[in-house]
Every structure is written in C-alpha cells, then in structure tokens.
Amino acid sequence: MTLDEYNGFCASLPATTHVVQWGGAHVWKVGGKVFAIAGWDEGKLPFVTFKCSHTAFEILKEQPGLRPAPYLASRGMSWIQRQTAESMDDESLKAYLRESHRLVVLKLTRKARLALGPLPV
To answer: Of 20, 50, 84, 121, which has the highest C-beta tally within 10 A?
Structure first.
C-alpha cells in the first residue's frame, strides 16, 4: 500500500481528520483520537500502525512483517505496525484500519459520537 492509497482509504472512513506530525508521520483521527499512523522506513513503502483488539494483538505480533507498534505497544496498548505485506495483504490491512476506526469510535464519549454524526459501530 502506497502512502497515497493509505491516505485515500483513511479519508474514505466516516468523520476522519488528517494531520502530518511526529517527524512526517501521516496521522488519521476520528473524534480527535488517533486510529492510524503511517511512517517511513528509508523511503520505502510506509509502515502502517493501527489499534486492534487484545486477541488480534497477541496473534498479529508473532506474524512475519508485523510487530508491536513502537512506543504504543510498550505502554500496554494493543497497537500493531505492519512493516511488510508478508503476512497481511492490503485488503486485510484495510479491514484492520476499519476495525481500528471502529474501536476508537467506541471509546469516544456519547457526546463526542453525537457531534460527529452517524458513525458505524
């Protein structure tokens, strides 16, 4: 997945916002909360980081091309970083990005969810 494909996909999800921060990372948020981050490794395809369930985290962290997300996972959060498509193709990555978006929406306050309008939950 190229950076343009990543940004286009994340932009297609409801009520998302985009910011470039943390040294050039493309960060996508819903309700002001991060659900996806794309960064670079020496100019190659982006590493994509996303939130997942605890169960998915335990399974994915052992797969080739995936790892616990630096910084986030070390603080006990269930975030995975895809470095290569070796064990997660782009379609699967999109499914995990959708789920990350959903998980973040579920953690928003009722007031915040209502302010965003209708969102899939």
So the answer is: 50
